[in-house]
Design the sequence.
């Protein structure tokens, strides 16, 4: 069963799998860990292959992918080519809202000048995809090392978000998705009601 967040299906790598688990969705497999189109260890090319093979694609999706490519030395050129084909395939098959999350600035991806340059180069390229049907979410707010696991199964990690990091990610996603898709689509009275409940503000609609 795919994992959904506010009506958007999660797809991508282990970050998407772990987020799905935190939202209460069960794993479909453990070797590799999988929930729908989210799979542990997936590269951009792997996700493209999954989408091409899928019987159907979601109308709305949140894509979290790229960490394993950068960790394992995939060339930026290959990442871009696979991502371009991924987006083209999703749109061709009817996906109308695509939310792309930049690659997280995890400590393991920012250890050297070269690794930081690769991360910045790819994320800067991703931001160029921003348009009506594609929204790109920046992850600069996740730069703090305290947002990442230091150890997993007794081994050094510094790649995966911890509970604090996932809370930060959810806030980032909520702010972006709410601003773009709720405020623009819902009638004004419903927007005001949402903000009234959320912020407990008596003057929000005045």
Sequence:
């Amino acid at each position: 069963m795919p994992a959904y967040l506010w009506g958007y299906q999660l797809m991508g790598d282990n970050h998407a799998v772990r987020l799905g688990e935190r939202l209460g969705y069960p794993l479909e497999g453990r070797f590799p860990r999988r929930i729908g189109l989210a799979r542990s260890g997936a590269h951009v090319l792997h996700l493209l292959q999954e989408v091409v093979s899928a019987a159907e694609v979601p109308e709305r999706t949140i894509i979290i992918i790229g960490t394993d490519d950068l960790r394992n030395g995939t060339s930026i050129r290959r990442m871009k080519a696979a991502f371009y084909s991924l987006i083209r395939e999703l749109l061709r098959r009817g996906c109308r809202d695509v939310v792309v999350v930049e690659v997280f600035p995890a400590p393991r991806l920012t250890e050297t000048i070269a690794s930081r340059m690769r991360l910045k180069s790819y994320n800067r390229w991703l931001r160029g995809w921003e348009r009506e049907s594609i929204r790109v979410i920046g992850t600069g707010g996740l730069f703090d090392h305290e947002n990442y696991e230091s150890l997993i199964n007794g081994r050094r990690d510094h790649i995966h978000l911890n509970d604090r990091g996932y809370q930060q990610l959810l806030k980032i996603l909520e702010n972006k998705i709410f601003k773009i898709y709720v405020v623009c689509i819902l009638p004004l009275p419903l927007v005001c009601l949402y903000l009234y409940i959320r912020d407990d503000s008596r003057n929000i609609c005045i």
About this structure: The longest helix spans residues 163-182. Residues 181-186, 200-206 have pLDDT under 50 and may be disordered. Strands lie at 4-5, 8-12, 29-30, 33-35, 37-39, 60-64, 97-101, 134-137, 151-152, 155-156. Helices lie at 14-22, 44-53, 67-71, 76-92, 113-127, 163-182, 188-199.
